[in-house]
Design goal:
The chain has 218 residues and is of the alpha+beta class. α6 runs antiparallel to α7. It contains seven helices and four strands, in the order αααββααααββ. It has one domain.
């Protein structure tokens, strides 16, 4: 589906992160990574290739995540009112962001016409526009319209990872990518950050951290 990484790929992937200022546990910022010499970027590209195509483990520091909680509403009164975000290394985000874009391009070639979300020129706003147009038509011309909206709370976070990855392979994702992704999900550990203080490490066996860029796949 895609070729091995090159130094130019690393630069493009980093530039795609513009606007992302949150630092991961390794403290490398986007600006600093872009200032790396060409030899260092080439070395990073080769490391990505060894991980993805050679089966090498992810560096320990890239698999640590500092989890922060973002309120979903102005006054958050319970855990359900908070959205956990795991801040991983900017270097890992570089890898996952680029691969995510390539997967989306691939999905666009076979996704059903009714699929609306993430895909190019297939926005969720299209669904909203269609519904609003139908309601407006009924209002102006008379008639009856009915429908239902469902939002299953935390639905994706209860999906077992083996199920997600098995379906991914059946859909046609390359084994090299799936293998690298499985290793990352297996290695990742998180620590909750509250008021600048970090709690103990913990791991999860379900869901995919939202900041991994590939979380939409679930």
């Amino acid at each position: 589906m895609w070729a091995p990484w090159t130094a130019d790929d690393v630069v493009c992937a980093l530039k795609d992160q513009e606007g992302d200022k949150a630092l991961g546990p390794d403290a490398w910022s986007l600006e600093e990574l872009l200032l790396w010499p060409a030899s260092a970027k080439e070395g990073l590209a080769q490391l990505f290739n060894r991980i993805e195509f050679g089966g090498e483990q992810w560096p320990r520091l890239w698999t640590l995540g500092a989890t922060v909680y973002i309120p979903k509403k102005e006054v958050a009164r319970s855990v359900k009112d908070l959205r956990p975000i795991a801040l991983l290394s900017m270097i890992y985000r570089c890898w996952s962001s680029r691969r995510s874009k390539q997967i989306l391009q691939w999905c666009s070639s076979w996704a059903p016409a009714g699929c609306r979300a993430y895909l190019r020129q297939r926005e969720t706003s299209d669904v909203v526009m269609t519904v609003c147009s139908s309601v407006e038509n009924v209002y102006l011309n008379g008639g009856v319209a009915s429908g239902i909206v469902m939002d299953v709370v935390k639905a994706s976070e209860f999906i077992q990872r083996p199920v997600i990855l098995s379906l991914s392979k059946k859909a046609g994702l390359p084994d090299s990518f799936a293998s690298a992704w499985v290793r990352m999900l297996g290695q990742i550990s998180r620590r909750v950050r509250i008021n600048g203080h970090l709690g103990g490490e913990f791991k999860a066996s379900v869901g995919i951290p939202e900041v991994m860029r590939l979380a939409w796949w679930q």
